[in-house]
Write a structure and sequence with these properties.
single chain; 84 residues; alpha+beta; two-stranded antiparallel sheet; 5 helices; 2 strands; 40% helix
Length: 84
C-alpha cells in the first residue's frame, strides 16, 4: 500500500520495523510515538494499534497536501450486506 501511495503523490515513505519488545520499552514511550502498528502522515497519527484501509490513508495524505477529497470507493454487494 505505502509504496504505491508514495509514488502516486511523490512523497517520501519511511517504514520503521522493530521487534515488538522494542516498542514496549520506557524509552520508546518517552519518544511520544504511536503504538505499533501505526500510520503517521507528517506529525499526525492516523491510526495506532490496528490496521487501516488504504483509502483512509490516502484521504489524510490528500488533506495534508491541500488536495480535494476523493469519493470513497463503492462497496460491492457483499460489502453492503456484510459491512465489509
Amino acid at each position: 500500500m505505502m509504496p504505491s501511495l508514495g509514488s502516486k503523490y511523490q512523497i517520501e515513505i519511511e517504514v520503521t520495523s522493530k521487534p515488538i519488545a522494542d516498542y514496549q520499552t520506557d524509552e520508546y514511550f518517552e519518544l511520544d510515538l504511536p503504538v505499533a502498528p501505526a500510520v503517521m502522515v507528517g506529525e499526525e497519527i492516523v491510526v495506532e494499534g490496528e490496521n487501516i484501509a488504504e483509502a483512509k490513508v490516502e484521504a489524510v495524505i490528500r488533506r495534508q497536501l491541500g488536495l480535494p477529497e476523493t469519493d470513497p470507493p463503492q462497496k460491492g454487494l457483499f460489502g453492503r450486506l456484510f459491512g465489509g
